[in-house]
Amino acid sequence: xxxxxxxxxxxxxxxxxxxxxxxxxxxxxxxxxxxxxxxxxxxxxxxxxxxxxxxxxxxxxxxxxxxxxxxxxxxxxxxxxxxxxxxxxxxxxxxxxxxxxxxxxxxxxxxxxxxxxxxxxxxxxxxxxxxxxxxxxxxxxxxxxxxxxxxxxxxxxxxxxxxxxxxxxxxxxxxxxxxxxxxxxxxxxxxxxxxxxxxxxxxxxxxxxxxxxxxxxxxxxxxxxxxxxxx
Length: 231
What we know:
The chain is an alpha+beta fold. 32% of the residues lie in helices and 20% in strands. It contains 7 helices and 5 strands; from the N terminus they run ααβαααααββββ.
């Protein structure tokens, strides 16, 4: 979601340039001292336009990237640790069919994804297993560039950690805590259209992927559209 234009119409006189220069200087000064957070203008920590009914075309944000599990023990700094989750082949075959299950399994084990569709399917299986590490490693999030922050975001969204007051209350994306099945509608070039059917509602999205040297394909964080449907 682009930052809306907040400026009015410029006055035609020459002093308009000086006003603009002063305004720009003040803007960057506020940003430098931390009083203006550009990211906060674009997207909030947990509630984004992807949690609304519909998200527009790129650079729209996807419901699957603004959410990302359960901790296993605690680190020295008191933060929860997270480990990768093993998904049984039988579950992969039930979710994706025997033909694609083997490829999804290899991606979950660390091999590069041969296509955006296989990565999308692997992310669904990771979502179902609440594998926040894989979800965070297989996506790009310009709002949360640090892996630790993405993991935390997924953990809160999936109900595996409590949200702080600043992170806000649960939105429609809380439905991702109980995914039941995935239906791939189409996969062409770098886009995959799919539905994730959850217990309470359904996510219908056309995700955009990008090539990655290590993982083959990763979710770009953008979507042609992303919307929640009532079951």
